[in-house]
């Protein structure tokens, strides 16, 4: 019944490890069933591919779950609605589901022929999205099999796949120390990218090797005899360098074929580190060494943990050859890299072993990012290498790196200040999103700009996370908006001065502000307002100096208490934050009912809830009308009204319903109109209405009823909009 996987089962048996064979068989049968009727380009049944991938994974001796995931890796992507991650989780558990999900996500990363910078980001994104290192191992195996069978694909597809292999997959294998994987991927990729160059080098190697077959064989047996004499335990093999590594030296370093010193190589594998050095001595006794070619990667391992002794010596007939000397353990690591740790350990690894493994991986990637917090990194098996960075795409496919939590506004400014300054909205993966949305790894972010945009909003300064965006926004305000900055700055300073609780004259104010300005190196009061206005200085930064000068200039005895009633109300308002005044209930908690979202200016009423303070409704809210009918609650309704002046920065949520004829530009037009009015869009959803009508429900930020009405009338002017009404949610 499982004869197709008998080879795989045999491989697993030979490892002597404790595999869950039943689970592996189930995964195979499940995948086979799902791929039934699908064929590869070569004409073979599709299941032959997952089987081959699982065999390569088994060769790395990864765990049961990895082998199951290898069988299932294409089921979610390719089998339409037949299965999904939840079904795999139910059948095979959380780990297998997580691995398959990770593999499926990687398929969606687009690759195009890009400059080096973008390719590096692509590699990082690849790692960042993989979450668990086993995902990368399986993905590499998947790619290896696809490369081995690339012949069946059409030319253009072959080239793109080969390019991606060369630029993304082979370097990843290298970084993870998986030399065997790396060499095979590189050679296969090269044979598709430069078939003629590949064939030439391959032929030259064969010719040269053919001519000197005796040389390498004789040298090998000379060394073997000496080592046997010395009673070493060893394995000794002769080899030539891979086609790709010779190709690279010839074309990139512009070397002649004969100038390649390490064309011939011998590899000695022995038991202990000490043996390595003793054998090195034996070799150097036998042959003359080439100066400057000895490398001790045992005492100084390569960043990818490769360890070996390398030396180049001159053999008979003056032919140079390289000798590599290493232990069996070093050899495993040289061939399989990080994966060797799975291969080496049998059964359950102890906690210390896992820690050691993780430490090792962390050292591997250390040279890329020194700011990582080691403890956090070592916390779990996940390789969350770039946890403080997010990698997203522009619509053209360029990768942009953002700090984690950066918003689409940061993205816009990361592209160019001109993009940020003209931004009126944003899309992620084609969907309109709020401007404070945080893009996730791999998402495509598109900034909607409009020539009619009046520039960034001051609120953006509170939303953005990068210094770059903040600086660019401030620069804009500094340059473009001086009169408005002065107004905003003056209002902020006056609000701050009111907090000091004593009245002052205009002359006193001027004196105070001039003093404050000169203390921070600013010339005029207007410049001070302007600086506060564009955000160059925050009010909290100058507040102590302001208080200082205020206390000096406005003496306590000559001041009078505040009598302005609206300011008293403002103080009271601060207590319940909204400013709503409830008759007879001072300082109680207030919240706004989500059903009708009352705005300043609406007629309102309060309802004393059980334990959640007073909830404020519009008087004409359907829930109020219904609620009034219940006599038992009658004494819980209380009169409420707005203060004369609501704190002007307060933004209320309001619901809007737009009726319109279906049009492609509609959403963009609405988004543009809102952005132009500096209205925050919190939520948007659309529904169809009849054959070509639609209803758009918006949640927006709004100051008061007048503001809301002006927004409504502006939206009514948009083409194809038939009506705009205030929304209720039930
Ligand atoms: Mn595949």
CATH class of the largest domain: Mainly Alpha
Structural class: alpha+beta
Helical content band:
40-55%
Shape: elongated
Compute the average pLDDT. Answer: 80
Can you walk through the features of this model?
The structure is a single chain. The chain is of the alpha+beta class and 730 residues long. It has 6 domains: 3-152, Hypothetical protein af1432 (Orthogonal Bundle); 198-340, 2-Layer Sandwich (Beta Polymerase, domain 2), CATH 3.30.460.10; 359-479, Beta-grasp domain (Ubiquitin-like (UB roll)); 481-558, no CATH class; 565-641, no CATH class; 652-726, ACT domain (Alpha-Beta Plaits). The protein is built from 30 helices and 20 strands. The strands form 5 sheets. Strands 1, 2, 3, 4, 5 and 6 form a 6-stranded mixed sheet that branches. It has a 5-stranded mixed sheet with strand order 12-16-14-15-13. Helix 23 packs across helix 26 (539-553). The longest helix has 23 residues, at 85-107. It starts with 5 loop residues before the first helix and ends with a strand. The model is unreliable at 345-351, 354-360, 362-387 and 557-576 (pLDDT under 50). Bound molecules: manganese (II) ion (MN). Manganese (II) ion binds next to loops.
Descriptive tags:
alpha+beta; about 725 residues; Ubiquitin-like (UB roll); 5-stranded mixed sheet; 30 helices; binds manganese (II) ion; single chain; Beta Polymerase, domain 2; Hypothetical protein af1432; elongated; 6-stranded mixed sheet; about 50% helix; 6 domains
């Amino acid at each position: 019944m499982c004869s197709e996987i008998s080879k795989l089962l045999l491989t697993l048996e030979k490892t002597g490890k404790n595999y869950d064979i039943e689970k592996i068989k189930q995964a195979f049968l499940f995948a086979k069933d799902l791929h039934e009727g699908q064929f590869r380009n070569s004409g073979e049944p599709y299941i032959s591919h997952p089987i081959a991938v699982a065999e390569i994974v088994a060769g790395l001796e990864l765990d049961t779950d990895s082998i199951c995931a290898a069988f299932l890796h294409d089921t979610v992507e390719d089998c339409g609605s037949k299965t999904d991650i939840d079904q795999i989780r139910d059948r095979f558990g959380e780990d297998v589901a997580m691995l398959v999900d990770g593999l499926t996500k990687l398929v969606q990363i687009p690759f195009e022929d890009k400059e080096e910078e973008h390719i590096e980001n692509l590699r990082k994104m690849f790692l960042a999205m993989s979450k668990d290192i086993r995902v990368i191992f399986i993905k590499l195996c998947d790619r290896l099999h696809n490369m081995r069978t690339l012949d069946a694909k059409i030319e253009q597809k072959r080239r793109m796949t080969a390019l991606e292999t060369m630029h993304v997959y082979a370097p990843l294998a290298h970084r993870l120390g998986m030399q065997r994987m790396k060499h095979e991927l590189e050679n296969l990729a090269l044979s598709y990218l430069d078939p003629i160059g590949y064939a030439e080098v391959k032929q030259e190697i064969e010719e040269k090797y053919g001519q000197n077959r005796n040389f390498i064989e004789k040298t090998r047996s000379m060394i073997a005899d000496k080592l046997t004499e010395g009673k070493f335990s060893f394995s000794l093999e002769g080899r030539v360098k891979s086609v790709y590594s010779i190709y690279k030296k010839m074309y990139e370093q512009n070397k002649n074929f004969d100038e390649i010193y390490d064309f011939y190589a011998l590899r000695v594998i022995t038991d202990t580190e000490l043996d390595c050095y003793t054998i090195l001595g034996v070799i150097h006794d036998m042959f003359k060494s080439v100066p400057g070619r000895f490398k001790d990667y045992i005492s100084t391992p390569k960043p990818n943990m490769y360890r070996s002794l390398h030396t180049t010596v001159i053999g008979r007939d003056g032919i140079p050859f390289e000798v590599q000397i290493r232990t069996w353990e070093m050899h495993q690591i040289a061939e399989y890299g990080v994966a060797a740790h799975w291969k080496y350990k049998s059964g359950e690894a102890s906690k210390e072993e896992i820690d050691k493994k993780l430490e090792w991986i962390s050292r591997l990637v250390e040279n890329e990012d020194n700011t990582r917090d080691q403890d956090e990194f070592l916390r779990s098996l996940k390789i969350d290498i770039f946890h403080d960075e997010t990698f997203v795409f522009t619509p053209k496919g360029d990768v942009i790196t953002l700090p984690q939590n950066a918003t689409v506004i940061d993205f816009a400014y990361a592209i160019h200040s001109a993009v940020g300054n003209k931004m009126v909205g944003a899309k992620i993966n084609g969907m309109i999103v709020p401007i404070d949305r945080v893009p996730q790894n791999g998402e495509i972010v598109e900034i909607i700009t409009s020539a009619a945009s009046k520039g960034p909003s001051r609120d953006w300064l509170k939303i953005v996370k990068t210094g770059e965006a903040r600086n660019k926004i401030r620069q804009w305000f500094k340059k473009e908006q001086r009169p408005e900055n002065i107004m905003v700055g003056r209002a902020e300073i006056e609000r701050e001065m009111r907090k000091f609780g004593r009245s002052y004259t205009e002359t006193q104010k001027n004196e105070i502000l001039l003093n404050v300005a000169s203390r921070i190196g600013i010339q005029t009061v207007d410049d001070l307002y302007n600086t506060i206005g564009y955000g160059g200085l925050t009010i909290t930064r100058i507040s102590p100096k302001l208080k200082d000068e205020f206390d000096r200039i406005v003496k306590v005895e000559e001041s009078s208490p505040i009598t302005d009633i609206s300011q008293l109300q403002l103080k009271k308002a601060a207590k319940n934050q909204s400013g709503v005044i409830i008759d007879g209930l001072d300082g109680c908690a207030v919240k706004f009912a989500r059903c009708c979202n009352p705005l300043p200016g609406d007629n309102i009423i309060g309802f004393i809830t059980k334990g959640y303070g007073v909830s404020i409704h519009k008087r004409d809210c359907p829930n109020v009308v219904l609620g009034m009918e219940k006599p038992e609650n009658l004494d819980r309704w209380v009169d409420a009204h707005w203060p004369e002046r609501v704190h002007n920065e307060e933004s209320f949520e309001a619901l809007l319903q737009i009726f319109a004829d279906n049009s492609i530009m509609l959403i963009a037009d609405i988004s543009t109109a809102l952005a132009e009015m500096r209205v925050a869009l919190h939520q948007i959803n659309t529904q169809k209405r009849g054959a070509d009508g639609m209803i758009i429900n918006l949640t927006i930020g709004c100051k008061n009823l007048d503001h809301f009405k002006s927004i409504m009338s502006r939206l009514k002017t948009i083409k194809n909009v038939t009506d705009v009404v205030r929304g209720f949610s039930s």
